[in-house]
Amino acid sequence: MLRTTQEIDNMLKKHDSYRNGCLNLIASENFASEKVRSYLTSDFGNRYGCYSTMDPAEREYTGNKFIHQFEMEAHELVKEIFKAKYTDLRPIGGHMAGMSVVLALLEPGDLVIEVSLSDWGHGLVGPMCQVRQFDETINVEYMAFDENRAVDTEKLIEQAKRLKPKMIIFGGSGTLFPEPVRELRALADELGFHIAYVASHVTGLIASGIFPNPLEEGADIMFGSTHKSFPGPQGGFVVSNDKKLMIKVGNTLAPSLVTSHHLNRLPALAASILEMKEFGDEYGKQVVRNSKSLAKALAKRGFKVLGEGKDYTESHLLLVDIGEYVDFAPAKFLEKANILCSDDFSGNSPEVRIGTPESTRRGMKEENMEDIAEFFKRLIIDKEDVETVKKDVESYARQFTGLDYSY
Amino acid sequence: MKVTCNNKTMEIEEKITLPELLEMLNYRKTVAVFINGKQLLSSQLDGYRINEGDQIKIIRILGGG
């Protein structure tokens, strides 16, 4: 049990030192700048800013004069960077943002088509089947992917015509390529379903202009988190150009899902948006260059990298099937060598998800991806001693403790 | 009896229930389970009895929203 603040400090120092000695290739994490982090300790973190959806000026608590002003200014930044007319920043994470959209826009018994957990889906509606109160209220079917791990547009169109869903949710945690939002827009109008987009993973790439903006492609609503490829504080957002949808979402969020929306993340989010406005273009391009370089470097060494027919990836991540070499989920094994990435939980052949946002922010370029690929080869193909590789990984990672694309 | 679980053929006892199979394979109950391509609802998990030849897919849910 912790007894003194000194013990807290020591543990945090240990954590920082350990993480600086790790290669963080977790696609859903990023490294926020000191400037962004500093805002998390503002007084906003001790205040309540609850408000009714269409009347944010009328805060339920007193003392919010400048909090209100700040939140509205933050809204303007979010709307600008995502090219949206409306936003709600009350979700404190991407999953809550998604729940608010699903619960607001669907009726009991409605059908959703989303990305299956088997295909690195976010598992937004699917896991609701694991909660008794939800399991029979919203039905879910899953879209198909082609041999390159891109959404199979023809099959999806056929599926939508046949099943007549009320919503299609694009996006997942293994997104390699842009989804066919534009291709489904006309059918959505014809059949009357909503197109929603889970942007959590590619939020940073959308903000930087490297990845298509789903709202511009025809999505009705987009939601996600602000801390994956987007290098902000942990948090969530919803954006749309449709006021009626946003009213429904807002009324679902509060007072049912969130009444304290953790105001301290708003100044940090604003600072990270300002960083992205200044450095986002350069950052996004380097992230994708690094992803492609790492994919090619791994393929060159004998790994089966998915998406080969489409140059492997257009995002901040790549997927590697390592079933030829191991028969277990590899993330905990790689962790022993200070390499952090994510297992595929689909129950298919062991896949590993490798992301490049944090390594890019810490200063790595295309040539460094060769070195990373070599670490993977030594561990998984050559079966080299883990402790030996760990020492090399640690000394390598400690060369990259700076921070680019930030104030 | 023979079933397929996460693409691997395995021999299990007859009349085994899904919770018993999950325990045997060291899964927690917070997993998504597909039987012959159809996801089970939470209300169906406890009572489901595995049948000969079932194609079972067990997916751990990766958090991080």
| Amount of beta strand of chain B | 25-35%
General shape of chain A: globular
Shape call of chain B: globular
Beta content of chain A: 5-15%
Binned, the helix content of chain A reads 40-55%
* Low-pLDDT stretches of chain B: none
Structure description:
The complex is a heterodimer of chains A (407) and B (65). Chain A is α/β, with parallel strands linked by helices. Helix content of chain A is 42%, strand content 14%. In chain A, the strands form four sheets. A seven-stranded mixed sheet of chain A has the order 4-10-9-8-7-5-6, with helices on both faces. In chain A, α6 (181-191) links the parallel β7 and β8 (194-198). In chain A, α3 runs parallel beside α10, α4 packs across α9 (243-257) and α10 packs across α13 (366-381). Chain B has a five-stranded mixed sheet with strand order 2-1-5-3-4, with no helix packed on it. Chain B is of the alpha+beta class and 65 residues long. Chain B contains two helices and five strands; from the N terminus they run ββαββαβ. Chain B is globular, with a radius of gyration of 11 Å. The model of chain B has no long low-confidence stretch (mean pLDDT 86).
Salient structural properties:
heterodimer; A: alpha/beta; 7-stranded mixed β-sheet; 14 helices; 42% helix; 14% strand; B: 65 residues; alpha+beta; 5-stranded mixed β-sheet; 2 helices
Short description:
The complex is a heterodimer of chains A (407) and B (65). Chain A has 407 residues and is an alpha/beta fold.
List the helices and strands and how they pair.
The complex is a heterodimer of chains A (407) and B (65).
Chain A: H1 5-20, E1 23-24, H2 34-38, E2 51-52, E3 55-59, H3 65-82, E4 86-88, H4 94-105, E5 111-114, E6 139-142, H5 153-163, E7 167-170, H6 181-191, E8 194-198, H7 203-208, H8 214-217, E9 221-225, E10 236-240, H9 243-257, H10 265-300, E11 304-305, E12 317-321, H11 331-335, E13 339-340, E14 342-343, E15 351-355, H12 357-361, H13 366-381, H14 386-397
Parallel strand pairs in A: 1-13, 5-6, 5-7, 7-8, 8-9
Antiparallel strand pairs in A: 2-3, 4-10, 9-10, 11-12, 12-15, 14-15
Helix pairs in contact in A: 3-10, 4-9, 5-6, 10-13
Chain B: E1 2-5, E2 8-11, H1 18-24, E3 31-35, E4 38-39, H2 42-45, E5 55-60
Parallel strand pairs in B: 1-5
Antiparallel strand pairs in B: 1-2, 3-4, 3-5
